[in-house]
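Pilot study result, target chain (429 residues):
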Amino acid sequence: MEIPLSKDAEEAVLCCCIIDDSNDSFHQISKDVSAEDFYYDDHKIIWDTMADLAEANSTIDVVTLTEALQGEHEDIMLVPMNLSSVVSTTLSLKSYVKILKKKARLRAMRQQFKQGLELISKDSEPDLIEEEIEKELERHRPIPEETTHISNSLEIIKKEVSDMMSGEYKPEYVKTHLKHLDEKIKLELGTVFTIAAPTSVGKSALALNIAMKSSARDNKHSLIFSLEMPQKQLSKRMVSALSWTNFRQVEEAVASQEKVAKIHEAIEKLTNMPIDTIHTVRSVAQISADVKRFVKEKDTKLVVIDYLQLIPFNAGRMGKSDGIAMISQKIKQIALENNVCIVLLSQLNREGARSEFPDLYHLKDSGSIENDADTVLIMNCKDNDTEAAKATDSYGPYIHVNYLVAKNREGERGVRGHFKFYATYGLFF
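Predicted structure:
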């Protein structure tokens, strides 16, 4: 099988950058093109040298390139001169780049599938093989074109103002439908909302509450990645919350007919809600692919990931802290690229779990979690004592859960509040 390449396209791309004295051609394509997109070593070196010249604000032309190649790369000093006459105009630059990128992607696929076959011959784990292939293919996917001028956003704002004044405005953000919380934070699309708490404080239940209410009241499609619970268990929790029913009473056959009727009513409601769940995740690259697919097919607006520290990564190549940082950064990219709000659940470290007032530095495993999140909510039981936080009202027993808005890009941070967590039903108020 022949190696996918186009020498003509590589030379044409480099020539366009050389004959354009303003460096505009280089800057136009440098976001999408890198040295590894070229097959020939000479061309890789020429591209890297162009990048160095551009970084130094020097003009890219035959003279500057030839001078820059002196010394370490004297053997290719004549290459810029030869390249400068390949094409006479830069008008077809985008077409040349398209061919260049296509061949580079095909080579990457060829190499990855070849390595995959080698791993298969060594009887490697299928998950490892798939992760390696997905990761490399993701790296070579083209960057989507963006509208960079702010006029695009200004037109949107102008229309929103008009809709607000006419009463027709439908906000493009996710509501938690917890009034006291929505007054403090706004979960806009393209952002990451991190919820952190010790175990058994209800962070999974809070995320489910938000997803159900968003789907039921706002008709927004929610995609839930639950790495702790199978779909049946997750669905049972949602049914319990919607019906205000303790499933233990059903299991023990002591639930009233009224409660059973409410369960069937809740099941009917859930059946019609735009919610999908995924329970097997092999890598953050798979999460990225799944989110892209559901955004395209179902216009997903809310993604729940439960939880960060359970997402697999290649532990043979990086430590846990670096692995978590890599995943956190990728999740932020997923939110931005797909224009979705991601509710990301995270653990607290041991010190934070024991602290009466946990804060950002108590997020487990990586400081990158704090940096990548747009909003961070940290929860713990009142006085950090689950038993002491228990109380009862007319709706039944609940746990007094304190929360801190530890980070808030679009509002005030350091704001505190509290939830009533009816753990029996998995409900937050």
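One observation from the pilot: Residues 93-121 form the longest helix (29 residues). A full batch analysis is planned for the follow-on phase.
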